[in-house]
Amino acid sequence: MVAGWLIRVACVVLALAAVLPARAAPVEELTGYRLSDYRAPTPAGLTGAVTLDADGVRGLLARGEALPLFVQRLDRSPTLPGAPWLLSKPYRQIPGSVWLPNVGLGAPDPATLAWFQRHLDRLSGGDRARGLLFYCLSDCWLSWNAAKRALSLGHTRVYWFPAGIDGWLEAGLPSEEATPLPGP
């Protein structure tokens, strides 16, 4: 009788284990940049940056403490250097954002890296203490890489929003159509 009860309990435990989502192991922060598989779970934070949720981002932007930078990757190259990007679909961004495509790649080409640095200098007015908020999509390393790179370039007030535009929209916050800056 006890053996039958134990077997039933074991079956229930196994059935629940099969249907309940497994908790993913925490993702460790890298010492370098993520070089591939950018759409994957990210670390809980980024050393040197402030990690925010949607409410934190909303407050930060309402106080005017940071410039939001959307770093979604574009798979198509611009038609010509400096020409508009060819978009395969419309994208949404946090209002007031600047879209700097492909700057979150782990190993950007020299032209993209120089383009990123030039735009950070221009957008911050050369003030390395100007708040910069990096985001992309949820579970996306591109914003983590871009924020890390901004820190390496000497920017001191770097914010990271790992939930990205997906988390922003899920929170019911307003968005606008995104238009990328012309590429390098």
From TrEMBL:
The keyword Signal applies. Keywords: Signal. SUPFAM superfamilies: Rhodanese/Cell cycle control phosphatase. Residues 94-177 form the Rhodanese domain. InterPro entries: PQQ_CXXCW, Rhodanese-like_dom, Rhodanese-like_dom_sf. The keyword Transmembrane helix does not apply. Residues 1-24 form the signal peptide. Coiled coil: none annotated. This is PQQ-dependent catabolism-associated CXXCW motif protein.
